[in-house]
Structures are given as structure tokens and as C-alpha cells.
Design a protein that fits this description.
The complex is a heterodimer of chains A (237) and B (248). Chain A has 237 residues and is mostly helical. Chain A is 82% helix and 0% strand. The mean pLDDT of chain A is 84. In chain B, α3 runs antiparallel to α6 and α4 runs antiparallel to α8. Chain B is mainly α. The model of chain B has no long low-confidence stretch (mean pLDDT 90). The chains are: A mainly alpha (237), B mainly alpha (248). Chains A and B meet through α2, α3 and α6 of A and α2, α3 and α6 of B.
């Protein structure tokens, strides 16, 4: 399975990065979010009624950058490639290997975006628990790979899909306990990852329940993404 | 307008009507983002500088009330610009091969973009009115329209020049940098020294001026914005006309 999916995965990564500007923006935007936005996010979060210290606000911006970029990428992976993926599957690769190649490509780009955000965060303000923070940022990316793929599985239009990714992102970001005291939603996809990232930035550990919650949501999201990629690659008779 | 241009316009609008989810999201996304951001913000005092050296003390909550409409409009209309123009590039070349003039197909797509801008600006203004009372509506509305048109044009150019992913990332980056940070008095009491170089400088200044001042001080800033719109509008027309007219 892996030996057949690997060259296809590499081709999918190249497909997305063939426009040089995409590559530049994938590197630039996470760094930009962390460096520029985070420098003002501490005061901003207080104005929103949250309790973020400046360092924690900087950390959360890294997670959001990884989340939004990965979600958009994952949506376009599903929505733009349906026809080509079906042909690939019909040509002998099979929907399973196409799905593994797609999720491998999304994850590889998600890891790269997360790495840029993580390194910028580390250089910008330091991280108390680098390993915890790295895992949390990767979880943001994984969760949004799942959400983007899920949207792509049901929504074909590029405008509708990208607006839905923005809407989900806004619901998630605005409703987190870190940005608002009002707590509009009891649960949001990145709640545990955000708690863990904020704690890690301040040098604190997190309770096991947060780790379990984050792992469950991130792995569940990747499973959903795999299902969405498989669905879009399988032939309909 | 010629019969062919009318047909192309009717078909372009019919194409949009077939996608009700897009219309719903053009309403829901700005409405949610504006309402939620205002509701979640505290009334922390904030002193800001308006055009002509006027200073006012307001609150962070009111700054969100004044500015979130512009930010939401720029994001949403920018994306509409990207994808309306990508649709145009996919389908309109065939219309040109079938005998339509490039200008007729481009006009149809531009009218769709204008209609989407009107919808998003209307929704944003209505939602803003439900959450915030500006000192003067006309400059605020004019600024919202101008931001929508400028970012619709930027989106259209991005859609014509880049693939979907790169264009989406570019809109995210430019809107957030320009409207969301550089021009926002939430982060800097007055825009920085080089802020005037960015496209939303003029309308953003007019927007905050209308929100917090009874008298209008942003005439020259609004002219800068109109200049941006004129240049971008001509660029969009020429780029699209050339793109749909090219025979490969």
C-alpha cells in the first residue's frame, strides 16, 4: 500500500506547490500570523473578554495559522481533484491508495506549515514546553485537515467551500474559552488543543484529559479526512 | 447593452442562482462574524486619531462595530472576486469562440461581482446597524462599498492570475494585513507611516471617520480610495478581456 501511495503522494504535494506563490504564502502566512498578529493579540484578547497573557496569545496564533491554511488546502484537495482521483483509482491505484496519498500530501503540507509556525513562535517569544506546543500545533493542522476534507466531500463549489471553512474557523476561534468569557459553545473542535498550546507556551503541563481529548479529536479528524478522500476517489456506478 | 451581452448576463446570474449555498453563505458569514465579534468585545476605552488630526475616545467594542463590516466585506467579496473570475475563465472562452465579444462576457461577470458586493455590503450594513450606532451613516456606507469594490477587484485579479489555493491564501493574507491590522485603530491609534500605500487606507479612514465623527474629514482619503478603485477596475477589465479573448 505505502510503496504504491508514496510516489502519488509526492506528486500531489508537487501539484499544490507548483505555483511558487503558494509555497511562499504557506511559509509566509504562519510566520506573519505569529510575528505581527501576535504582537497585538494579548491586548486584543483582553478586550474580547478572554484571559490570555501576551505569550499565550502568541502561541494560539500559531495554532490558528496552521489550522486555517491546512483546512483550506484540504478542502481544495477534495473539491478540485475529484475527477482526477477517480481516474487514478480506476487506472489501478484503487480508492484506498489514492485516499492514503491524498491524506499523506495534506499531512506533509500541514506538518510544514505547523513547523514554520512553531519555529517562528519559538524564536519570537520562546516556548516553555516545546514538545507539548509542537504536538498541539500539529493537532490544530490535523483537525482542520479533517474539517476541510469533510466540507470538500459535500460541497463542490470553491466559493461555498472556502466560505464554509472561514465560517467554521470563525465559530471555532471566537467561541474558544481563550478569546471570550461568554463561552458561546460548550465544545469546539480545537478547544483541548488550544488549552494545551496555551499551557505549553507558559511552561505548564496539561492534564491527561486534555491530551486524550486532543488526540481523540485529531485522530478522528484524520479518519474523517481519509473517509472523505476515499469517497471522492471511488467510482460511482 | 446588446442582446448577446444581456444573454451572457442572464446566464451568469442563472449560474449563481443554481448555487443557493453560496447565496446563503454570502449572508451568514458576514452576519455571524460581525455580530459575534462585537458581542464578544468588552467596552475597554481606546483613544484613536481620525483624519484631519481629530482625536476621539471610544471603546474597543465600538471599534469592532465600526470596523468589522469592512473586514468581513473585504474577505467575502475578495473570495467572490476570485471564484467568479475563475468560473469566467473556465466557461467564457467557449462563449468567445462561439461568437461573443470578450467585452460582453466580461461585463456579465462584472455585473455578478457587483451584485454580490451589493448583497454583502447590504447585509454587513444591516448587521452593523443592529449592533452599533455610527455618528454618520453616509461615509460609513460609502467606505463599505468602496472596500467591497476594491477587494472584489483584487480578488478578480488574483483569480485570473493564480490557482484557487494561492488566490485564497493571498486574499486571506492581504485582507488581514491591510484592513485587519495596518488600518485598524484597535492596534494603532492612527495608521502607520506607510499605511497609505495599501488599498483600503482611504475607505478605512472614511469608515472610522463616519463611525465616530458627525462632520466629514476624510475627503482626500476617499479620493485615494477612488483612485485605487479606478486603477484596479481598469486592470480587471483589461486582464479579463485578454484572458477570455486569448485563443490557445
Amino acid at each position: 500500500m505505502l510503496s504504491a501511495a508514496l510516489p502519488t503522494m509526492t506528486a500531489f504535494v508537487r501539484e499544490h506547490l507548483r505555483a511558487p506563490l503558494t509555497l511562499v504564502l504557506l511559509i509566509w502566512i504562519p510566520g506573519f500570523f505569529v510575528l505581527i498578529f501576535a504582537s497585538v493579540l494579548g491586548d486584543f484578547a483582553k478586550a474580547l473578554g478572554g484571559t490570555l497573557a501576551a505569550q499565550s496569545a502568541t502561541a494560539i496564533s500559531a495554532g490558528w495559522a496552521a489550522a486555517f491554511l491546512s483546512g483550506t488546502l484540504s478542502f481544495f484537495q477534495v473539491s478540485s481533484s475529484r475527477g482526477a482521483d477517480r481516474r487514478l483509482a480506476d487506472a489501478g491505484l484503487g480508492p484506498g491508495r489514492v485516499a492514503f496519498a491524498r491524506i499523506g500530501a495534506s499531512s506533509a503540507i500541514g506538518i510544514a506549515v505547523s513547523a514554520v509556525a512553531f519555529v517562528t513562535l519559538w524564536l519570537r517569544s520562546g516556548i516553555g514546553h516545546p514538545l507539548h506546543a509542537g504536538v498541539a500545533i500539529l493537532s490544530f493542522a490535523a483537525i482542520y485537515i479533517g474539517l476541510g476534507a469533510l466540507i470538500g466531500a459535500f460541497v463542490r463549489g470553491a466559493l461555498e467551500g472556502s466560505l464554509l471553512v472561514i465560517l467554521v474557523f470563525a465559530l471555532d476561534a471566537f467561541s474558544g474559552p481563550q478569546m471570550t468569557s461568554s463561552g458561546a459553545f460548550a465544545w469546539t473542535p480545537t478547544r483541548d488543543a488550544a488549552d494545551l498550546l496555551i499551557a505549553a507556551a507558559g511552561g505548564q503541563g496539561s492534564p491527561g484529559a486534555d491530551w486524550l481529548g486532543m488526540a481523540a479529536v485529531a485522530l478522528g479528524a484524520l479518519a474523517v479526512a481519509l473517509g472523505a478522500f476515499w469517497l471522492s476517489a471511488r467510482t460511482r456506478s | 447593452m446588446s442582446a448577446r451581452a444581456l444573454t451572457a448576463t442572464a446566464m451568469a446570474f442563472r449560474d449563481q442562482r443554481r448555487r443557493p449555498l453560496a447565496l446563503i453563505l454570502l449572508v451568514v458569514v458576514p452576519a455571524y462574524v460581525i455580530t459575534r465579534s462585537i458581542a464578544a468585545t468588552l467596552g475597554t476605552p481606546r483613544r484613536i486619531g481620525l483624519p484631519d488630526g481629530v482625536w476621539v475616545t471610544t471603546t474597543m467594542r465600538d471599534l469592532h462595530g465600526a470596523g468589522m463590516g469592512g473586514l468581513a466585506i473585504a474577505f467575502v467579496v475578495g473570495l467572490v472576486g476570485v471564484f467568479v473570475m475563475q468560473s469566467a475563465l473556465e466557461g467564457d472562452r467557449r462563449l468567445v469562440l462561439a461568437g461573443f465579444r470578450p467585452g460582453e462576457t466580461v461585463l456579465a461577470r462584472l455585473l455578478v461581482l457587483l451584485a454580490a458586493t451589493a448583497l454583502v455590503v447590504g447585509v454587513s450594513a444591516l448587521v452593523t446597524a443592529l449592533n452599533f450606532t455610527p455618528a454618520s451613516w453616509p461615509p460609513l456606507i460609502a467606505a463599505m462599498i468602496l472596500i467591497g469594490l476594491i477587494y472584489g477587484a483584487i480578488g478578480a485579479l488574483a483569480g485570473a492570475a493564480l490557482d484557487k489555493l494561492a488566490a485564497t491564501y493571498l486574499i486571506l493574507f492581504v485582507v488581514k494585513s491591510d484592513v485587519g491590522i495596518v488600518q485598524s485603530p484597535m492596534f494603532s491609534a492612527t495608521p502607520g507611516r506607510l499605511a497609505f500605500l495599501l488599498p483600503s487606507y482611504g475607505p478605512s479612514r472614511a469608515m472610522y471617520d463616519g463611525a465616530f465623527s458627525q462632520s466629514f474629514h476624510a475627503g482626500s482619503e476617499l479620493l485615494i480610495g477612488l483612485g485605487w478603485l479606478a486603477v484596479l477596475g481598469v486592470a480587471v477589465y483589461l486582464v479579463l478581456r485578454r484572458a477570455v479573448g486569448s485563443r490557445t
